[in-house]
Amino acid sequence: MFEVKQIAVGGLDDNFSYFLCASNGDAAVVDPCGDLSKVFAAIRNRPDAKMKYILITHGHRDHISGLDEMRKAYPAPVVAHPECRVHSDIPLHDRQRLPFGDSCIECLFTPGHAVSSVCYRLGDDSAIFTGDTLFIDCCGYCDPETMFHTMREILYPLPDSLTVYSGHDYGHVPFESLGAQKRTNPYLYTKDLPAFIEEVKKL
User: Fold this and answer.
1) Nearest-angstrom CA–CA distance, 98 and 6
2) For the segment 132-145, what is each residue's pLDDT rounded down to a tens digit?
3) pTM
4) Residues 164, 175: contact at Cβ < 8 Å?
5) 85-95 pLDDT per residue, tens
6) Are the CB atoms for 112 and 143 separated by under 8 Å?
7) Rounded distance, CA 95 to CA 120, Å?
8) Are 148 and 142 spatial neighbours (Cβ–Cβ below 8 Å)?
């Protein structure tokens, strides 16, 4: 069982950071940025937390602005795509599973917004952290053909039960199930590339 704290950290554009904690105290932070005092407060509220990973969804500055401060306060291995602008302490490959609690965190390469874009899926299929790949109601600025492949071949087939936690507060709600997004998000439900390219023009 996992606890997920979505933290509105402000940042450059209504950013979210996330604090994850497993029942055994294994902990991770996703995209430390913005007002890190809010992240630190969430960690302190779990005195049993043992920081195991710092997870980076992609290398854009607004998502890594607090990385150095985070590492000083809570040293832990940084996990990122090999082409990310930050150094990854764990050599990462697609579909790699990182031990976490009594389950895992699965790393999915999801290019389109950035070549270094990664989504992190909790092993119990309760949550996925999508950075700027998939937002509630839309997606990040992207290379359309690459993003279309990511949406249709990587994200759409995932279980409906996953709660989508993105990198920014852009949607009608701050988070929602992937099943709901499959029905309402045109960047996720569009089935052919020409139609997807037309949707991307609206971003």
Assistant:
1) 21
2) 999 999 999 999 99
3) 0.97
4) yes
5) 898 999 899 99
6) yes
7) 10
8) no
